[in-house]
Amino acid sequence: MAQNVGSNFFTVKNLKLGYHFLISHTPYLFIIPAISALGFYNLLTITTLEDLNNHIILMLKSWPIIIIFFAALYLIRGRPRNVYLVDFACYKPDEADMMSKQQLLDIMSLTFDDEAVHLQKKVLEKSGYSDKTYVPEGIRRLPEKLLTFEESRKETEKVMFGAIDNLLAKTKVKAREIGIIIVNSGLFNPTPSLSSMIVNHYKLGSDVLTYNISGMGCRAGLISIDLANRLLQTQVSAYAMVVSTESIHCGSYLGNDKSKLVSNCLFRMGAAAILLSNCFSDSRRSKYKLMHVVRTHKGADDRAFKSIYQEQDEDGNIGISLSKGLMVVAGETLKSNITTLGPLVLPMSEQLLYFGYLIARKIFKLKNIKPYIPDFKLAFEHFFIHAGGRGVLDEMEKNLDLTEWHMEPSRMTLYRFGNTSSSSLWYELAYSEAKGRIKKGDRAWQIGFGSGFKCNSVVWHALKTINPAMEKNPWTDEIHDFPVNVPLVMPLSV
């Protein structure tokens, strides 16, 4: 019996956990004994009461100087402002906007030729979407009514204002208190701008700072968070609101070029509004604290630059082409991104293991050595990967060695709401909140991909345990139905 216990204890898993503990606590194992030894040595030099009195006086005189020195050093280096995520809201469209995959395919059958319909049928069958995703009215009325600029404006106003109204109701913040507005929408950029539409609708003050981010696709939401963070570093006691959305109308393609038809099957209605603050007084009521933002841009590589490319076909129809090498480009960009992120978040034990792998590969030229993938599960409790498609999620699960539990928010968001572009990451976070999974001290990693080609990461630290009974989000009324098993293929008929 004792022999079995011993053999079970010295497993690879337990040895690795012991290794992580040893490396993570190395500073304490060396520094504390060193300080103790120094203090003990000083005590040995004291032989009289006068020496002891002088020693105490010297310590009392020295500590204020030491404190002032380190405080001055800290101020000289510059202290970045903490940025807090007070709360966020995701828009849940009306039931009238709901459309099944079969209904969408029926509309496609009236709009495209047979070859194009069959291609989109295959994509829809393997999409991993439910029959409860949402499509704007303009698309639901094809081909009876053509897509128009006014329909795009109508769709965007509906989802933007819906998300913002929910956010203001949750936070109890008045619209006029918000000093920074950042809106990201990749394709629809009217004049006046989307941010101006918000200023007009909510009658914001003339001193509000407004920004619009366009053409950056599905990871633009995280770029907006980065911009908000940078702006809040220069403001005193300010609120910044980020609104992430996309117009499905503008992304629709009515031609027959195969490379451009896939996007018709992917995108769905959605929007998210996020309230950020640099006020310390907001830290007590905020949900999360922003820890890191890492952005990677591969636009200098022509293959990456054209992997997602908007262009006209031979008939003048505008659409977005997805290259066959898109998954390879995404993998390479992700690798570059996590190479930068790793040292910021991984425990020293994992960094040393990866460093050892690099030495073996680069210096000792051991080409047959298995690549070492850092265990990011040691750095994060939650992973929120942009729900761009089933293939993307499968690759991320494999490359990061994640479990079904880690992937559940992304897969269920893809199933229930589809690809809502840059707002999808917030539907995923809302899922985990509704499930009661977010605990105080948890670390969450949001990962977004998009045209350019870019990969962005944002890391959050949970400031409180989220009580799902106190939350109201798009999942609240139906969270008990999830997770569900998603078939690999859901047959449709033409």
UniProtKB/TrEMBL annotation:
Entry GO terms, CC: membrane
Pfam families assigned to the protein according to its UniProt record, in alphabetical order: ACP_syn_III_C, FAE1_CUT1_RppA
Ribosomal protein listed as a keyword: no
Keywords in alphabetical order: Acyltransferase, Membrane, Transferase, Transmembrane, Transmembrane helix
Sequence ranges assigned to domain FAE in this UniProt record: 78-362
Residue span, Beta-ketoacyl-[acyl-carrier-protein] synthase III C-terminal domain: 381-460
GO biological process, one term: fatty acid biosynthetic process
Catalytic activity line of the entry: a very-long-chain acyl-CoA + malonyl-CoA + H(+) = a very-long-chain 3-oxoacyl-CoA + CO2 + CoA
Pathway connected to this protein: Lipid metabolism; fatty acid biosynthesis
Gene Ontology MF term list: fatty acid elongase activity
Transmembrane segments annotated in the record for this chain: 21-44, 56-76
Enzyme Commission designation: 2.3.1.-
Family of this protein: Belongs to the thiolase-like superfamily. Chalcone/stilbene synthases family.
The protein's name: 3-ketoacyl-CoA synthase
Organism: Solanum verrucosum
